[in-house]
Amino acid sequence: MLQLELKRAFRNYRFAFVTIVNFIFALIALFYESKTELFMQFEKYKQSEIFNLYISKTKDIDSVMYVWPGALLSFTFNVVLYILPLLCVFPFALSYSKDIKTNYIDKILVKTSKKKYYLSKFIAVFISSGIVGIQFLLFSFIISALFFPIDTVFPTGRYLISNVSVLSNLFYEHTWLYLLIYFVYEFLFWGILSVICLGISCIENNIFMIAIAPFVLYFFINSLTLWILGKWEFSPKEIASLPNLRINTVPLLLCFWLICLLITIPYWVRCFKKDKILED
Asked: Which residues of 42-71 are buried (b: 16+ CB within 10 A; e: fewer)?
């Protein structure tokens, strides 16, 4: 059952569409923002007499991290963080509601148990949404690595990672390990946010309302923390990026994830309900 749900999650035009969108954003971030700022600057200093001195003072210019949007104050990355709540749910998070409306769920439950279907659906939504959530960072990193190697990263004001960021020392001492944790974190964040569509599908039939539910929750808490509390570092948009996650915001992150999981309770109630669910 899980294999079938995963196949449905990834072999559809919606997943292909969001993949292309993320790839385009990655190209824009690297060949517009980074190229304008770095490549022209690099060529300028390469031809100057103080090139060697310049390189000695900015050794990280040869590092992929110097151009990777995930480690920088990138405008494009900020835009992506605004639209990811919508992109992540588009491929498969709405499939449970569609299964009910098309009576697919009644047909599939003849062939498998209800628990297997619901658990497989949850896992498939979580995985597909999580992968969409890391696509921009992954694509931009791969493209960046075509031009710059991963080398020792030196502290500089250019990076988004600061001394108050979680695992900041790891970024400079073990960059590969930090990257792995970064991708896992983003995968978890967007996967957990997107599964709330399953819970909303149990109490709402309107597909549009279900689709924007993660977006509404994301920006409601974002507005609450920014405009009422005046704490930008507490907003979901900030903690959605690992470099912006601080030690004092970790409890807020866990609370945010808990809220998302609590919203899925109606889904699990249906899963463990003994009588068969009939939908008109």
From this structure: beebeeeeeeeebeeebebbebbbbbbbbb
The pLDDT tens digits for 20-68 are: 999 999 888 877 665 555 554 445 444 444 444 434 444 445 567 767 7
Quote the longest CA-to-CA distance of the chain: 80
Angle at CA 71, nearest 5°, toward 172 and 191? 110
CA distance 107 to 86: 29
CA distance 146 to 127: 27
State pLDDT tens for residues 237-272.
888 888 888 888 888 889 989 999 999 999 888 877
N-terminal to C-terminal alpha carbon distance within the chain: 24
Which of 73, 74, 92 minimizes the C-alpha distance to 190? 92
The answer to whether residue 130 scores a pLDDT higher than 90 is: yes
Pick from 38, 32, 41, 39: which is nearest to 75 by CA?
32
Alpha-carbon distance of 161 to 237, in angstroms, equals: 16
**CA of residue 113 relative to chain centroid, distance:** 31
**Residue 70 to residues 67, 189, 245, Cα–Cα distance (Å):** 9, 15, 13
**Minimal CA–CA distance to 240: which of 62, 81, 49?**
81
What burial letters (b/e) apply to 124-151, b meaning 16+ CB within 10 Å?
A: bbbbbbbbbbbbbbbbbbebbeeebebe
Residue 141 has pLDDT above 90, yes or no: no
Alpha helices (H) along 195-249: 196-201, 207-223, 236-239
Is 21:79 a contact under the CB 8 Å cutoff?
no
Residue 89 has pLDDT above 70, yes or no: yes
